[in-house]
Write a structure and sequence with these properties.
22 helices; 567 residues; DNA-binding
DNA sequence: GATCATACGATCGTCACTATTCATAGTGA
């Protein structure tokens, strides 16, 4: 059990307690504990009960329960509650417009037990007849269901897939028969969501590899198993396919299974034009192998240089490679600072000092603390008065700590008319201003374009945070005219954020590419709400790399003194 | 269920928006 597993049990317990009508504060205690555990940088499994008790938000009772979860993988309370509700109920948690109260009503009155039940109830118009429901709610719920079903198509966030991939790779490495191992597919291309994992192994004894693979502890079902191929379903529903190939074909298979499909089609066309045949077994001329052992070998034989998986979408990378003009993509080591982070002043879970120390330990030269502005009441957003208090604390910390520069920033809300949630003089006193939209995201494209452009034109604004506002699997991006936004950003010298939260990754890859082509700089930021979150930069980097972003396209690769050319 | 602290019992992020019972409950950030 790692921290995320433990947190998941507590979080689900909270959900079910809430549904059972439990005291709201008890529910929140479980939720807070789950969050606290997610924030930990050490594994709770390695801690004594006393040490667990010291984690904020965890008292004697929950500490005991955490130990139980760690030791048994389960919690009696969780078990008990789960027995009271339909087994597939938790899949309804994320439906927009459905909270615990309405969900409870649906279970009790309409005997809704799954997504399918709910979908049928919506279709037959039964929802609107319930007291408290009406046509509009019914429609909203129907739309949300559709978005979930179609939009993500059962895909998992990259970060979640990465966790599974790491565990699986560790397991597979214990298999002596394996010579080489890669997880290919969209995971290797670092797409923002991943449908399934394609594991590729090279070995002479494939039977031994098969056996070892099926023995992975999280396997719940073996859906196929032959001599060189096996498919399993893991706990949590992720499908994993394994292919075992001989070493002489490993490179070819890796190209083939990494994709994308359109990239592969393009490669095969090039092979054909040269009188070659490319497939998953190798590159052949008149039946005899020309290449196949490594990817490099294959690309070289096709007359182009190796292309990093993130670029393999047939968006011009093959032409660029042929012309020797592949971009030198941004790397984690290029980033000097993080320009979007939160602290206890609003909805962060760590003190400013803790955030700064962690950033320094991570090798950053500067960090901007950018808490929310007052419009976000739930986060206890800052007004000018509290901003001044925060400035004093930052100054104090800056005096105490060397080796890192602390900037005072803000994540100021862009109000619905495009004005900002704080007056210009308050913003003017700050070192860094992120401006973001957090509500009324469903405006028309014309309205949203105007709103964002107005914010961009405000000279106090340095960067637009998570520009589209999307939440993968939960909320569609808002509509706006990207080329107009880019035109104005370019004109004004304003930058756009690549937010590294796994559920955001916003700008997305194609928008990154559009920004680069429009001459607009991006800022890659963690939007960290805890010290642990500061590591999320990795995911923003992935997305930026998929969007052809190079070091010079990214503002926070510059030294602190060169950050604000704009004002 | 955790935390604070007149040490047992009170307190625990807030507010805008939506839909419906049009003043209020529920949700969402």
């Amino acid at each position: 059990m790692d921290n995320d597993d433990v947190a998941k049990v507590l979080g689900e317990t909270a959900d079910m307690l809430e549904l059972a009508g439990e005291n709201f504060f008890r529910v929140r205690a479980y939720r807070n504990a789950a969050q606290s555990i997610r924030d930990q940088t050490v594994q709770v499994a390695d801690l004594t009960p006393e040490q667990i008790d010291e984690i904020p938000g965890i008292g004697a009772d929950l500490a005991k329960k955490v130990r139980t979860v760690v030791e048994t993988g389960d919690l009696p309370l969780h078990h008990e509650l789960a027995a009271k509700f339909p087994p597939r109920l938790l899949e309804l948690r994320d439906v927009s417009g459905l909270g615990p109260k309405r969900l409870k009503l649906l279970i009790d009155r309409l005997n809704i037990r799954s997504r399918d039940d709910l979908e049928n109830a919506v279709k037959s118009g039964r929802l609107r007849k319930l007291s408290g429901f009406g046509p509009k709610l019914e429609q909203r719920i129907g739309e949300s269901l559709q978005r979930h079903g179609a939009g993500q198509g059962g895909r998992m966030l990259y970060a979640d897939a990465a966790r599974i991939a790491a565990q699986l790779s560790a397991h597979m490495r214990n298999c002596g028969a394996i010579r080489k191992l890669e997880i290919a597919g969209s995971f290797r291309r670092r797409r923002e969501t991943v449908g399934d994992l394609d594991v590729l192994a090279s070995a002479d004894d494939s039977a031994a590899v098969m056996k070892h693979f099926i023995g992975f502890p999280d396997v719940t079902q073996v859906t196929g198993s032959g001599e060189t191929k096996a498919s399993v379903v893991l706990k949590g529903g992720m499908q994993v396919d394994l292919r075992v190939v001989p070493p002489k074909s490993f490179g070819a298979a890796l190209v083939y299974f990494t994709g994308s499909k359109s990239h592969n089609v393009h490669l095969r066309r090039i092979a054909q034009a040269r009188g070659l045949l490319l497939n998953e077994y190798g590159l052949f001329r008149e039946g005899s192998a020309v290449a196949g052992r490594t990817e490099q070998e294959i690309y070289r034989a096709l007359g182009i240089s190796w292309i990093t998986p993130e670029l393999r979408e047939d968006r011009g990378e093959i032409e660029a490679s042929a012309a020797g003009k592949l971009p030198r993509l941004i790397e984690r080591g290029n980033l000097r600072g993080d320009l979007h982070t939160h602290s206890l002043y609003t909805d962060g879970h760590a003190s400013i000092e803790a955030m700064v120390r962690q950033a320094r330990d991570n090798g950053l030269e500067y960090i901007a603390i950018t808490d929310h502005s007052r419009r976000l009441a739930m986060a206890h957003g800052l007004d000018p008065e509290r901003l001044r208090e925060q400035r004093k604390e930052i100054d104090r910390i800056q005096k105490k700590l060397t080796g890192i520069t602390v900037l005072q920033g803000i994540e100021v809300d862009i109000l619905e008319d495009g004005t900002l949630d704080l007056p210009d003089d308050a913003l003017g006193a700050l070192d860094w201003v992120v401006a973001s939209v957090h509500y009324k995201l469903e405006q028309s494209s014309a309205q949203m374009t105007r709103r964002l452009c107005k914010a961009i034109r405000n000279r106090k604004v340095d960067v637009i945070g998570h520009p589209s506002g999307r939440l993968l699997g939960h909320r569609e991006p808002s509509n706006f005219d990207l080329s107009e936004i880019l035109r104005v950003a370019r004109e004004e010298g304003c930058t756009l954020e690549v937010n590294s939260q796994p559920v955001r990754l916003d700008l997305n890859d194609t928008a990154c590419l559009a920004a680069k082509r429009a001459g607009v700089k991006v800022v890659i930021s963690s939007d960290a709400h805890s010290t642990r979150d500061l590591q999320l930069l990795e995911y923003g980097i992935n997305q930026a790399r998929r969007g052809w972003i190079e070091k010079d396209d990214v503002l926070n690769t510059r030294p602190r003194k060169d950050l604000r050319a704009r004002r």
